[in-house]
Write a structure and sequence with these properties.
The protein is an all-alpha fold. It has one domain. It is 73% helix and 0% strand. The chain has eight helices and no strands. α2 packs antiparallel against α3 and α3 packs parallel to α7. It starts with a helix and ends in a 5-residue tail after the last helix. Keywords: Membrane, Transmembrane, Transmembrane helix. This is Energy-coupling factor transport system substrate-specific component. InterPro entries: ABC_thiamin-permease_prd.
């Protein structure tokens, strides 16, 4: 009985949130929320440049998708992606986003998209491939929601498909790949030494 208890403790502890996990996830979420808000200001003029082929605006969506991925990569606990993305969405809304309360709904959904990928890998793999997949999944959710619950719902099936493909690509690159690069850069500075992300040398 004692042996069984000892063998199970490390696994249980690996998934248990510490105070420092909550703090760093919140800090990442707040920082991301400010970036989200600034990107919201740039969204309209940038998307207007793509008005001829409107679905290409989906390529800009990835900036709103990195919070969940980076939170998951750093904290490495169940729920980290969702928590960080929701905090970011809340901060964006509180500052004064043009999207209002829908920020929270999209934040929750996009965070869940990334979270599902991390869950599929049982919160054990944290390399670039997982980060890219998590960003792509978040982009897929973003594309589906945008083309279902916004003005884009009036588009043709072809345009909806193109838009969603663009959000997936944007999520994979801006939300996933760049998040992985950012975490690696932070790890090299020693800022993440209290986290597995700061000690890991996993490359793929």
């Amino acid at each position: 009985m004692v042996t069984a208890h000892v063998s199970q403790t490390p696994r249980a502890g690996r998934f248990r949130w510490r105070v420092v996990d909550i703090v760093i996830a919140a800090v990442l979420g707040v920082a991301a929320g400010v970036i989200f808000w600034a990107w919201g200001l740039a969204w309209t003029p940038l998307s207007n440049l793509l008005v001829v082929i409107a679905p290409l605006s989906g390529l800009l969506a990835g900036v709103w998708l990195f919070a969940g991925v980076i939170g998951g990569l750093v904290v490495r606990k169940p729920g980290a992606a969702v928590f960080t993305e929701i905090v970011a969405a809340t901060v964006e809304m509180a500052i004064g986003s043009q999207f209002g309360f829908s920020n929270l709904i999209w934040g929750l959904a996009q965070g869940l998209g990334a979270e599902v990928i991390l869950l599929l890998f049982l919160y054990r793999k944290w390399g670039v491939a997982v980060a890219v997949l998590a960003g792509a999944a978040s982009g897929l959710v973003c594309g589906l929601m945008d083309t279902t619950f916004t003005d884009s719902a009036a588009w043709s099936a072809a345009w909806k498909s193109l838009y969603t493909a663009c959000t997936i690509v944007s999520g994979a690159v801006l939300g996933g790949l760049l998040s992985w690069v950012a975490v690696r850069a932070l790890a090299r500075t020693g800022a993440l030494n209290r986290f597995a992300a700061g000690r890991s040398r996993e490359a793929i």
